[in-house]
Specification:
It contains 2 helices and no strands. The chain is mostly helical.
Length: about 100
């Protein structure tokens, strides 16, 4: 027995709403998860940077001291100190150039 055309509505009415709702909710859950993960990663990176800060400051201080020492050694060599000239020659052979500090 066939139904008259006016009574047959095809697939169940509203059958597309549930899949769309599931997709939209899934998208927002994924978005919330990714946002939470990004916030956590940012916090971890911030903590890591804070923990490295003392080491960075120490390395800056050490580099400044080394540059001062190298400059003074170069100045001594320029003034004629033989030991300083020897040090400069050895450093040049190793590829390191020491220059006297600018006045």
């Amino acid at each position: 027995m066939t139904m008259p055309q006016s009574e047959w509505n095809g697939p169940a009415t509203g059958g597309w709403r549930l899949p769309v709702i599931i997709v939209v909710v899934s998208f927002f859950v994924l978005l919330a998860f990714e946002t939470g993960h990004a916030v956590h990663d940012r916090s971890a990176l911030s903590d890591l940077r804070r923990s490295q800060e003392p080491t960075v400051q120490e390395s800056i201080k050490l580099r400044q001291q080394l540059e001062t020492l190298a400059g003074k050694t170069a100045q001594l060599a320029a003034d004629g100190d033989e030991a300083a000239k020897t040090v400069l020659d050895q450093m040049r052979r190793q590829g390191v150039t020491l220059t006297p500090p600018k006045q």
